[in-house]
Specification:
The structure is a homodimer.
Chain A lengths: L8 H7 L7 E8 L5 E10 L2 E10 L8 H13 L17 E3 L2 E7 L11 H18 L12 H11 L1 H7 L3 H15 L6 E4 L8 E4 L2 E5 L6 E4 H12 L10 H14 L4 H26 L14 H11 L4 H4 L10
Antiparallel strand pairs in A: 1-2, 2-3, 3-5, 4-5, 6-9, 7-8
Helix pairs in contact in A: 3-7, 3-8, 4-6, 4-9, 6-9, 7-9, 9-10
Chain lengths: ~325, ~325
């Protein structure tokens, strides 16, 4: 359950006062999202009914970063992307304050989260990611990547080899080897800018194969575009049964991305390394959460080993897997 | 004089045959550009007259890089930018071969080169540079920066301190100190992608304050966008009389750039270092040309000391010069 702030209907109504959206009819807590509290709020003014998402920012999101996070979504929305753009208050602010917490009212987006996306949906997600990259390039703010390589090492060191070994005996050695590999092989000079950095299927709303919502920009940061695509590939393109790359989805996602932003040869060549980096990023944060007594329990914690399995697949990739796509396969279609 | 290939009218007519532009009426050599030979070519078919620029690629441009250079200009042209886009041959190629040299037929652009641009023109140039960055982000090819920091050092080492000292006695020490400074302070993780890297006034055609042509993408490479802007600032924004920053032009150029792509705080902070890097880049290549017996003589060689003077100005910049713009000054208006 992701609603940390427990508000009475009267208090929610008071909270909504800075926005010109009429009277609160009904509020429904949303049981998703680990970083904030969310409600579907239904309001009414005369005969007009509206529906929005109310977000109260909890721990993990620094209010000092709201101008970036909410400004970015506002900018993407103005660029025609389907994002939960913040509704300005009557005084023109993108958020307000309530009992010491920041709160924003976001446009409601239709569509649903798909657990097991197909190739057409992966293609749409790839297309949307490229549109995010291109549109965000004209956004005025940036954000340093706080979950880069140094942070992976720091998080894993904080967990320590003994606790990591409780997840899998050979995990400490594997991760040490992997961090050293990434230090030696991480690319530089790839095209970069604001990247979403968390485009998992549960952050994409779909209506069939059409993307109707791109959610949760709270990990967005300046980084390589191709690393962002690698994260999306890790999140969308593995076969649920055998754990191998789901080639049709992989090819579709990259082809979709390239409809708007074709990859450079250097980005293709770097993809195996970027994928391994993406695995480390999620192994590190999931392991840190796993052993964090304060982290949300049960449903909130995610299995670090899911990305250890992906890491093994990525380590065994042939160097030419991305750089020499078969004609009409990864690059084409 | 920049025409290295001396062709008879009959040979030029033969050279033009792959393009469907009618019969050659007149060809006028263009005395600009140090990397290739150029002609204004006037053709006629029936009553229709057309005018193009014919380019024959000489030394300095590797034909293997033509798919990048000409493809980039083609891509920018399709995006609505005023560039000398290549006219495809009847068989659809962006260039052809003639006597072992590549040749392209480029759209003629009106406008003129302005020696001493004013603030309105600097603003237009800044605006155009941002549009190049945003549009080029969806181009499928990239190009490694071959004139980056390692190349500056290599070129200066090849000239050697003795010859550098003939330009100015304290130059070898200054440049050694500067290279060490740049190695320590060069930023990473700034937004990057294809940068023009040579947007001097002689590469911009103007009609009043309107940009009618963006020329010479032969130094374009993947690099920081803010470094590209720093190069343009070095080229456009110094006072011809006292050698100091021409503040009205500087503020106008940055404001123009930010109309399309606002700078991040990190890019503003890095600007003094990027400017010093830009000075080194042109000091190094100009010094290398200066002492190169094979380089074009007289008009073709450019004074390295012009950028040593700029370097001294950039070294004396207050750290807050770009990062805390006065309201309505650099950032605004």
């Amino acid at each position: 359950m992701a609603v940390y702030s427990d508000y009475s209907p009267a208090e929610l109504a008071a909270l909504l006062r800075p926005w010109d959206v009429g009277d609160l009819e009904r509020a429904q807590p949303i049981a998703a999202g680990v970083s904030n509290s969310n409600w579907h709020v239904h309001t009414r003014r005369g005969a007009a009914r509206t529906r929005h998402v109310l977000t109260v920012f909890e721990r993990r999101i620094d209010p000092a970063e709201l101008p970036f996070f909410l400004g970015l979504v506002d900018h993407l929305g103005r660029g025609g992307l389907p994002v939960p753009a913040p509704v300005p208050t009557v005084s023109g602010e993108l958020w307000t304050w309530h009992r010491g917490k920041a709160a924003a009212l976001l446009h409601f987006l239709p569509g649903e989260v798909i657990d097991r996306p197909d190739a057409a949906q992966a293609r749409s997600a790839g297309r949307a990611l490229a549109r995010i990259h291109l549109r965000a390039a004209s956004f005025a703010k940036g954000r340093r990547q706080t979950l880069g390589r140094a942070a992976w090492r720091r998080m894993l060191d904080a967990v320590g080899p003994d606790r990591l070994a409780t997840l899998a005996p050979d995990l400490p050695a594997l991760l040490a080897e992997e961090l050293a590999f990434l230090d030696r092989n991480w690319p530089d000079r790839l095209p970069s800018g604001i990247a979403h950095c968390d485009l998992f299927p549960d952050n994409v709303l779909l209506d069939g194969a059409r993307v109707t919502g791109l959610l949760d920009f709270y990990f967005a940061a300046t980084d390589f575009y191709a690393y962002d695509l690698a994260i999306a590939v890790l999140a969308w393109c593995f076969d649920e049964r055998d754990g191998a790359f789901a080639r049709p989805r992989l090819e579709a996602m990259i082809a979709g991305y390239e409809e708007h932003r074709p990859l450079l040869a250097a980005e293709r060549r770097a993809m195996p390394v970027l994928l391994r980096g993406g695995c480390l990023r999620f192994i590190a944060s999931r392991a840190a959460d796993w052993f964090d007594a304060d982290a949300p329990s049960a449903g909130g914690r995610k299995d670090p080993l899911a990305f250890v399995r992906r890491l093994h697949v990525c380590r065994s990739l042939d160097a030419s897997f991305f750089s020499d796509p078969p004609q009409g396969a990864i690059a084409g279609a």
